[in-house]
Amino acid sequence: MKNETFDLQEKLQALLKAQRDISPQGKVANYIPALAEINPNLMGVSVATIDGKVFGAGDDKVPFSIQSISKVFGLVMAMNRVGDKLWERVNMEPSGQPFNSIIQLEWEKGIPRNPVINAGALLIADVLTSHFSSSKLAFLSFMRTLSDDKNVYIDKHIYQSELSHGNRNAALAYLMKSFNNIQADVPEVLSHYFTQCSVSMSCQQLAQSLLFLANKGVDPRNNKVICSAKDAHRVNAILSTSGMYDQSGEFAFSVGLPAKSGVGGGLIAIVPNHGVICTWSPRLNRFGNSVVGVNLVAAIAEELGVSIYH
Ligand code: GLN
């Protein structure tokens, strides 16, 4: 990163304040009613570096619903479990469609475009359900290990709310099942998927938990191999092309970092060989990405002079 000596902590505070000072844009997700209960003005940012520094500002220690950011961790678990065979059941192309789109899935015979749209994440949920005796516990334990915090928890209220408003995800899973691309029972797959989406974590925890993706698969805090360097590269590639759904092209064009958003308002961006940026602000744009998150990650990347396309 450009100019390591400047005070990132102060810079993050100033960048966050700049976002607070402009009139709020975007809307909190309400298709999962429990997500709409959040205070839309909460805002946090954290930056963790592979050499062990953690910077933060605002509500960086407040846990929020990680939602689709969980797809990154689920993907890593599935890659570790089934290896290259995974790519026979899910593709690695951008979809150019909203995250919960169903239309492409029928044309493409039940093979999801990529593992980070909902169809792909449900496919991954099926892999995990089928390969772990308790995939939900395995997922939670993976998150607790990576965040080094055994208090990371599943928000049951969010889980219930998603479960009772999950018809579109159910439709995606049943459509894949009709093409024989889902092995377990659909309710079990949905239950795993909603569980991982309902995990609550803070910006600070997420940024640190993803350091392995900035460090060729190795957690720099303890030198533990979380995935192979090749798989870290693949996850970053997928996040670059698809992590921001149908805003991925624009995000690559203007920022240039592998990133993943969640409808809880979280956004993570990987800076390979340097660290991870995580932001949280619940108001979303029409793509389901946090408005402030996109602005903040862009501003931080510019400030640090980082982009994978430099
Ligand atoms: N649980 C959410 C859903 O299935 C996740 C979507 C998201 O965060 N983009 O709709």
What's a quick, concise take on this entry?
It is built from 13 helices and twelve strands. With 310 residues, it is an alpha+beta fold. The strands form four sheets. Strands 3-2-11-10-9 form a five-stranded antiparallel β-sheet, sandwiched between helices.
Task: Explain what the structure shows.
- A hairpin with a 4-residue loop joins strand 9 and strand 10.
- The protein has a five-stranded antiparallel beta sheet with strand order 3-2-11-10-9, with helices on both faces. Strands 4-6-5 form a three-stranded antiparallel beta sheet. The chain has a two-stranded antiparallel sheet with strand order 1-12.
- The protein is built from 13 helices and twelve strands.
- Helices cover 45% and strands 13% of the residues.
- It is α+β, with helices and mostly antiparallel strands and 310 residues long.
- Glutamine binds next to loops.
Which helices and strands occur, and which strands form pairs?
Elements: H1 8-21, E1 27-28, E2 44-49, E3 54-58, E4 64-65, H2 70-82, H3 103-107, H4 118-131, H5 135-147, E5 153-154, H6 156-164, H7 167-178, H8 186-197, E6 199-201, H9 203-209, H10 211-214, E7 218-219, E8 224-225, H11 229-242, H12 248-254, E9 259-261, E10 266-271, E11 275-280, E12 283-284, H13 291-304
Antiparallel strand pairs: 1-12, 2-3, 2-11, 4-6, 5-6, 7-8, 9-10, 10-11
Residues 67-68, 99-100, 118, 162, 169, 197, 262-263, 288 line the site of glutamine.
